[in-house]
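Q: A reviewer asked whether we had any structural model of the full assembly, not just the individual parts. We don't, so I'm hoping you can provide one. Inputs are below.
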Amino acid sequence: MVKVCIFEDEKVTDLHPLTMTRAAFELRIGMSSLLDKIMRMLRGVKPSEVYLEVRDYLAPVVKVRFPEYKVNEYKPVDDTVFVNARLLYAGEEVELACEEVVAVKDGYVAYAYARRSTLEKVGGGSVTDVLTRLREELSSKEAETRLINWPWDLVKHNAEMIRREFEWRGKRGVVPEKVEVVGEKDLVYIDPSVKVYPYVVIDAEEGPVYIDAGAKVFPFTYIQGPTYIGEKTYIMPCARIREGCSIGPVCRVGGEVEESIIHGYSNKYHDGFLGHAYVGQWVNLGAITTNSDLKNDYSEVQVFINGKPINTGELKVGAFIGDHVKTSIGTYLNTGAVVGIMANVLAPDISPKYIPPFTWYIKGVFSRGYGLRRALRTAETMMSRRGVKLTEEERRMYEYLYEVTRKEREEYIRRSRRKKA
Amino acid sequence: MAKLTREEVEQKVKEVIAEQFGVDPASLKPETRFVEDLGADSLASIELVAAIEEAFDIEVPDEDIEKNQTVGQAIEYVIKKLEEKGALA
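A: Here is a predicted structure for the entire assembly that you could use as a starting point for your response.
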């Protein structure tokens, strides 16, 4: 029997802050998660046959989120298909479980297939160790699929994935009578349970628009394709949802949003611009919160990942916002800003490029704020408003992350105090 | 966490306050006031409460924050909290 093992590799931390609180395969792009697309690639493999290999501290949380899968239980004792958790499947022809092979992309294993005898020969250890030895043992080839290497890759490929997944879902041409559509009606699907108020314009000239079950679109709103609006998401009055957006589920979104992904359960109720950004879960962006996604000199945007400035090679890069971040009214986020999980931001001038996790950034000063205990209480309050409970596993994950990020946070706070003095 | 004596609590509270306000712990007297003497603003007060909660693994309800205006009051408050949870030697 062939096993399937979806594994996280060492590059997964380059997707911080988004992957600090979730496995890489949970990231959203297009109309679903990376995992949903990997499962499509695996053609008929049941979740119960799949082993998810994630970072140890995430395993309890992933077990709760994906009860039908096996988590961190993989042992290399059967023929195995390995798939990188960062793999973006976009419908490429991929041959799995035929020839033994290691398929590589950007220097990392994208997927591999090895028989039991080979696995016995290369020996046990972690999946990463096994794959390292498999690369020496088996022939390699260039993978047909892409890997998500940086947070901005998700934004970059989002519009294309919406178009593709719109085709995959196969639902089209369903639009309530009074909704104004510009372009082909066939490129629009509005689930019959969606409530669309009068004076809404759907523009499908550049790509499809899919509005999922239970959503509401309030009056005077413009939605431009390709765009996906997730289940039970509300698009607030006068919103401008521009091309390349994936929103939801259960978000409340207003103002102007362009080429951005909002993971789910997050709010941007009011005016303000969000562009080329990825917003995590349980985020609240205060009124007028705006991110820059283009520098005034049109030069390449740098993003701070794990303390290092990374050249993105892109001119348009917005903010990457971790789970449970809150911004005040009138916050301005710098081009390519990274806001760590559970940070609290009040930046009426312009934010720094990086705000560490669990930190408060208030008008030029970094602070430890009200601490983890109150941060978790705020999280519980926000989640309960949407009928969701913070699990014990999540609480322990945040406690762990609070400790491992303490040193960096304290350093920023110390430097900030020195500067203030 | 091992049980602390009153003297250890006093010393530790002073260290936390000193770290927060960038002063020498030895300069802190029981009558030292957070706002008037140490220049605490609302953010510094929030941070101090969080630091004390973390240092002693106690919870300070919001309504108790205003009651602690001086270093001495904060020390007595922490001692009382530790007593309640049986963590005072």
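A: Points you may want to mention in the reply: The mean pLDDT of chain A is 96. DSSP finds nine helices and 40 strands in chain A.
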